[in-house]
Q: What sequence folds into this?
């Protein structure tokens, strides 16, 4: 397949064939990660910069590990100690990185569209590691990879995504990718946490987890994004939220015997998911994290070796 993108900005932009191409490449890299020597020299001599304007444990470490497994060097720029603090703009920052010979930029930013702005202003590949409420495409890809590994072809599979849909870039990337692969997606949340027009993209919605949990082949539980809710009260209390929307052991008794439970992390145990479920037999949460390295190896490798140049 001829890869036609310079950047990975969102799963909205990829076709089903392109998503499958990335996931097939990730499968090969997962085999590499199971070898005693986990590194391949594919990107020796290249350097990737991780530019994270928001906190991260999994995504930043996973991109850093993925680049190193491909033989590339990495530079995790500390925003707190960078010239951003002296007022340097995002565009000036990335143009300076580019002329140093950096081969690719991974960026997480609180503003939706920030990675798109960067991509327009540099010739090197840009990977969106999460932008505001918009997309988190590599999280979407690693979730889909894990779902396929456990459930096979996702065509017709019922995926129930529960939580703070309104503030979730993971929900959006999951929905774009899953719908393209033929899965049926249902968003479940209190009315205050589901955007009114979300069904226009092809998902179903429900305010009642108990009414839909029994049909789910896959449940993806999202974190309550307290840092994005800007002081607004979207639910009466965390306790009330747990009672109505939390994935509790009691609620799981109504789910299919072979349902799998995903969570992108970080988890708020006792709020959106109880510990018995987070650590229970249906969870594939740490497998998601493990698969994330292979998926990020795949996307870095594809963009740096097959990516299209920016149109002048
Ligand atoms: N899933 C995810 O994006 O986790 P981090 O915020 O730790 O990167």
A:
């Amino acid at each position: 397949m001829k890869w036609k993108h310079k950047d990975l900005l969102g799963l909205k932009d990829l076709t089903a064939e392109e998503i499958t191409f990335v996931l097939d490449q990730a499968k090969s890299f997962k085999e590499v990660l199971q070898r005693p020597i986990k590194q391949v020299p594919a990107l020796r001599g290249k350097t990737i910069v991780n530019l994270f304007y928001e906190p991260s444990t999994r995504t930043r470490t996973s991109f850093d590990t993925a680049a190193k497994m491909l033989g590339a060097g990495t530079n995790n720029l500390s925003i707190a100690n960078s010239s951003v603090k002296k007022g340097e703009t995002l565009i000036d920052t990335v143009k300076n990185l580019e002329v140093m010979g950096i081969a690719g930029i991974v960026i997480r930013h609180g503003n939706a569209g920030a990675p798109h702005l960067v991509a327009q202003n540099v010739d090197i590949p840009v990977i969106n590691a999460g932008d505001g409420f918009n997309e988190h495409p590599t999280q979407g890809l690693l979730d889909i990879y894990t779902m396929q590994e456990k459930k096979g072809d996702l065509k017709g599979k019922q995926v129930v995504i529960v939580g703070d849909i309104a503030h979730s870039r993971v929900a959006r990337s999951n929905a774009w990718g899953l719908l393209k692969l033929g899965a049926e997606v249902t968003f479940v949340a209190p009315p205050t946490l589901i955007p009114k027009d979300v069904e226009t993209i092809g998902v179903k919605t429900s305010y009642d987890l108990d009414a839909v949990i029994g049909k789910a082949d896959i449940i993806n539980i999202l974190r309550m994004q307290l840092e994005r809710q800007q002081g607004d009260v979207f639910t009466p209390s965390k306790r009330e939220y747990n009672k109505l929307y939390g994935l509790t052991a009691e609620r799981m008794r109504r789910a299919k015997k072979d349902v799998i439970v995903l969570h992108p992390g970080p988890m708020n145990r006792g709020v959106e998911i109880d510990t018995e479920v987070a650590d229970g037999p249906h969870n594939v949460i740490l497998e998601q994290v493990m698969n994330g390295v292979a998926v990020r190896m795949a996307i870095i490798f594809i963009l740096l070796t097959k990516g299209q140049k920016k149109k002048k």
